[in-house]
Write the structure tokens for this entry.
Amino acid sequence: MHVPRAWLEGDALVAARHLLGCLLVRDGVVLRIVEVEAYRHGGDTASHAHRGPTPRNAPMWGPPGRAYVYLCYGLHHLLNVTTEPEGRAAAVLIRGAEVVEGADVVAARRGRPVTAGSLAGPGKVAQALGLDVRWSGEDLLAPGGLELRRGTDVRDVLVGPRIGIDYAEPVHREAPWRLALAGSRQVARVRGLRPDPTDGHGPRAG
């Protein structure tokens, strides 16, 4: 069953919490999302969209539930899920995932066996799914292609600052908008994460 679009129509930080534990599915590969970062609408200086629309960030402006895939430093493709109503640019970066099915396909795509830490990092996630910028704008809630499906309720969520945003203003560099599942070996840089003081110990709403 696909993720309800309503989960993604609100604030990116709320959507990020919903996405933990959900599944990304493509061509026999199933990944469980274990680490995300929220890039919010309304002045987030770490967001690609904070200066306005461009051809690259166009998917961020909606509708929610689309893929936003971009090439980082000319090396790694990164997958984001768009959130918030159309016209409000926001997205959630998929930073880490666990292989549920299709380990052989993932190993072939990445040129190495699947081990602990294999998909700890957003470039590794997109590589495991075989994604590039041509997937940007894909509807993740439609059958076929790359799909975002419901997973299981999660507990023991960790939060902390996002990674690699030194260019952002201090208030946005320090905001606890990175979320991860405690105990997963596919989470990068666990240092700096702490238990979610708000809702990290309850089931996903909705």
